[in-house]
Amino acid sequence: MKLYYHITGHGHPLIILHGLFGSGDNWYTLSNFFAEKFKVYTVDQRNHGRSPHSDIFNYHVMAEDLNNLMIHEGISSTYLLGHSMGGKTAMQFAVTHPEKVDKLVVVDIAPKAYSAQHDKIFDAMFALKLKSYKTRSELDTALAEHINDFPVRQFLLKNITRGEDGEFKWKIDIHAIRKNYENINAAVEATQPFEKPTLFIKGGKSAYVREEDIPQIKSIFPRAEFAAVENAGHWVHAEAPQEFAKILMEFLVNN
Questions:
Q1: Shared-domain flag, residues 22 and 88
Q2: Is 132 known to be catalytic?
Q3: Band of pLDDT at residue 255, cut at 50, 70 and 90
Q4: What is the DSSP letter of 135?
Q5: Do 27 and 137 reside in the same domain of the chain?
Q6: What is the Cα–Cα distance from 22 to 108, expressed in whole angstroms?
Q7: Residue 54: phi, psi to the nearest 5?
């Protein structure tokens, strides 16, 4: 599958993979900052953003989507950064194609399997009858009946656009994502360790990466280092962008 991606900057490649319900646009501001040092690729993963949709949705095919992107762009090796679902794609790619990753950064996710945590969000999204609404404020009001958190609603509403007929429609393939949700919660499948520099950045307020996950992480990523952004939750890069950027740049440039 040929993914949509945006390129900015010059230098060694840095590929950024977003999380579930996200897109490369979520990284717009930070990617411009990183572009002062690197050639930055912000990618829309399959079924997200402006990339194609598919009923096949798992970390192996998403890793191969990334491999195809690198082949198309003539990238022999890269720095690779992934948040949440994108972090799992990045980990799967690193253990499958270790020769193509120079340094790996994983944001607020572990390689383990997770229990379902998005059922409420799926229910809220499927409850929206998009053609019934004329404005984004109407969409937000309807979504608020299910989700109280305003930033979460704004994040989800970025996945809605207008079609050629002027009516609202989903950019993401919510049906394929829901159908394959167990695959997104699944563990990274590693047949060999990734032995190059790796950094796990977690939100201090997030429970996605726990102390008891470290032995499993170290078994797959023996050179893993860990950093925490204490005042951030799961969306570390959005909640504390300056601190996040400082940690990342120190790892990529000085390490």
A1: yes
A2: no
A3: low
A4: S
A5: no
A6: 15
A7: -160, 145
On whether both 96 and 75 belong to a single domain, the answer is yes
The half-sphere exposure of 224 on its side-chain side, counting CA atoms within 13 A, is 24
CA 116 to CA 202: how far, in whole Å? 20
Answer for the pair 14, 79: CB distance below 8 angstroms, yes or no: yes
For helices 136-144 and 150-157, what crossing angle results, to 10°?
A: 130
Asked if 196 and 108 sit in the same domain, the reply is yes
Domain ends where: 154, 178, 202? 178
Of 84, 146, 175, 237, which one is the catalytic site residue?
84
Q: How many domains does the chain have?
A: 2
Domain span holding position 44: 4-113+186-254
Region 190-194: mean pLDDT is 95
By DSSP bridging, strand 198-203 and strand 12-17 are unpaired
Residue 99 has pLDDT above 80, yes or no: yes
pLDDT digits (tens, 9 = 90+) for 100-125: 999 999 999 999 999 998 999 999 99
In this structure, the answer to whether residues 198 and 153 fall within a common structural domain is no
Question: Percent of the chain beyond pLDDT 90?
Answer: 96
234 is known as an active-site residue: yes
What are the b/e assignments for 216-230, b being 16+ CB within 10 Å?
ebeebbeebeebbbe
Full-model pTM: 0.96
Per-residue tokens: 28 = 């717009």
The two three-digit tokens of residue 94, written as one number? 């690193």
| Count of residues in the chain | 255
The residue annotated as part of the active site, out of 48, 83, 234, 237, is 234
